[in-house]
Amino acid sequence: MGSTSARVFARVTAAPAVVLAAWLLVAFPLLVAGVLSPVTGALLGIPAVAAGLLGAFRLVPALPAGAGRGPGLPWWPFVLTAAIAAAFAAVQLGYHSEILVIRRDPASYAQFTHWIAEHGSLPIPQRRDLIAGGDNALVYGSLAYYEVGDVVWPQFLAGAPLVYTVGHWLGGIPGMLLVPPVVGGLGVLTFGGLAARLVGPRWAPAAALVLAVCQTQQWVSRSTYSEPVAQVLLLGALVLAYDALTRPVEPRGWTRWHTLAAVAGLVFGLGLVVRITALRDLLPLVAFAGLLLVARRGQALPLLGGLVVGAGYGAVAGYGLSRPYLEHLSASLVPLLWISGAVVVSVAAAVALLWRRGLPRGDRPRWLPSAAALSVVAVMAALALRPLVYTDLGHGDEATAAYIGRVQEIEGLPFAPDRTYYEMSLYWVGWYVGLSTVLLAAFGAALVVRRILQHRAPQWVLPAMVLSWTVVTTLLRPAITPDHPWASRRLIVLVLPAFVLFAVWFVAWLAHRLFTEPGADRPWVRRSAAAAAAAAGVAVMLVPTALTAAGVMTYRSDVGSVAAVRKLCRAIPADASVVMVDGVYGGYMQLVRGMCGVPTAGLSSADPQRDVARIIAGIEERGRTPVLAASKPRAILPYVEPGTPVRHPFDVHAEQDPSTLMEPPAGAWVFDGDVWIAVVR
């Protein structure tokens, strides 16, 4: 029973990343070729996913025997971890959002998903010939959608929309909105698998539960964010890399361990198809591959090969399908590319230098492991003290500064719109998983680093490199609008899981030390002390995490938007050409263009009375029905004949995510979505 449960636990928790990677491997080329459809997706995707699952269940080894106590592993750790992930997904399905109006990223991804699910190709045609030709008073770009020549490009990368497309094919817009909760549950399951490998199977349910309760994990899993997909891929890549390195193999020949290493590298690289920021997270993997090369480990070249293939996909996703977005990010992306190139060159030089000498001893001099552990604590202390000595300023974006100023006024904070609040980043972590978890994680990370340098924890080398690098670089500069829960997106892929993982490891280490305390000659005393330490450690992580989550996890955002979209689309004639005559086009243009399937443009004019009349005439000359849209009826009335009906088909009054700056979010704000239209006959 024990060996079977160990195999099932290992393979089921590796499967989510393999499934997503297999789907992206075939779906992304179909999108690039412009032939993505339910038929082509099924013909290639189903065999790819099936092959990936078969490979995972044949190649992934059982959890190591040393991970559990006794000769075998009972079933309860796996069953409980899977139950936590399933319960998480069920709750998020019940609370899933209906964010379709573009204000921030979820609706941008939703509109991206809808377009490729319906059309299977990019870019998005403007169809300006069906409105008023190249009239200079019209614009075709909007929030998160770039007007380039006579086409429109979506802002973000295609990875998450390709995953959510499957739900759209199966259930339309409602089906699309149900996929993120499922992917979020898979993230919890994958994290449980990583904890089972690095901490022990019996600690996996505790780790999974803390992450599942975390407000940010719940929040991003209720809307079409990219983070759930990125989390499954990057945590799953760490799982697969752990499995690939459980056996030392020679560079020559090819074994299951070489295959697993190649798959792990591929999954890491495919993170770039989902989020461009994954490039930063992958830099430690290059250094680790250099360590494997110097150590003559056979997994090194397959790992690098898989990474190169996955990164190639990411390069095409970025520069082929999202170039305007990368150009928008050039101020931060170009330096990151230079840093990445420098890392590759430096690692190559270090490998050449150490090729004959071998790896240096991490435990020489003898004080080095302890000094490294102390440095971890020092870094955490510096991050904690940073708000006392430093205030970060400068968004580099006037719109962001204006928004932060409005939030400060709402919260009654000192007016400082240029403040980024980045110096508070470690406290953000404390909000969402508890300051007790932060403290336990600091001690855990310090001990893990010490054990690595003492050659006592080789399995932790890659996870510690990736997680610690991501934690430090992210907390130093989150690079995101700092209102919450929005800013917590930057933490959920790897940062919050890292804190939970290190904290659970420290609690497990402490409980084990108490259980094996040589000075206690009564077994029941040791068992009681260990159990008390374990229960207390999990409680001090879980309770503050749950208290924060309770404040905002009781509402559904933008409820009613799906029905409103259907009503809006029914109100627009099939032969319509829509002109949005006020600022409503920023959030609704792609919704009308994509979900209603009619040519749409926005008015940008110094003389709107004259220009609208000319545009209406141009639409009528093309044999189409002009439709004017706006956020208020008074914006339409000057351009239509008296008595023309002005209808209100999109009328949503719901709850939406709040914005806070100096405390965790604890309640919903109001969302008012309005589109009025007039059909000009």
Task: Considering the chains and any ligands shown, give keywords for the structure.
3-stranded antiparallel β-sheet, globular, 6-stranded mixed β-sheet, membrane, 681 residues, alpha+beta, single chain, 62% helix
Q: Helices and strands: which structural class?
A: alpha+beta
Give the strand tally: 9
Biggest sheet statistics: 6 strands, mixed
CA(first)-CA(last) distance: 74 Å
Strand content: 5-15%
- The dominant shape is globular
Strand arrangement, largest sheet? Answer: 2-6-5-7-9-8
Number of helical elements: 24
Low-pLDDT residue intervals, each spanning 5 or more residues = none
Helix coverage percent of residues? 55-70%
How large is the radius of gyration?
27 Å
Calculate the mean pLDDT score and round it: 94
Transmembrane segments: 12-36, 42-63, 75-95, 152-170, 177-199, 257-276, 303-321, 333-355, 367-385, 426-448, 460-480, 492-511, 532-555
Protein name: Glycosyltransferase RgtA/B/C/D-like domain-containing protein
Keywords: Membrane, Transmembrane, Transmembrane helix
Give the SSE layout.
Elements (H helix, E strand, L loop, with lengths): L1 H32 L4 H22 L16 H19 L10 H15 L4 E2 L12 E2 L5 E4 L2 E4 L4 H40 L5 H10 L1 H6 L6 H18 L11 H19 L3 H17 L5 H22 L1 H6 L1 H25 L13 H22 L8 H14 L13 H9 L1 H19 L7 H16 L12 H4 L2 H21 L7 H28 L10 H11 L4 E5 L4 H11 L4 E4 L4 H14 L3 E6 L16 E10 L12 E11 L2
Keywords: Membrane, Transmembrane, Transmembrane helix
Protein name: Glycosyltransferase RgtA/B/C/D-like domain-containing protein
Organism: Streptomonospora arabica
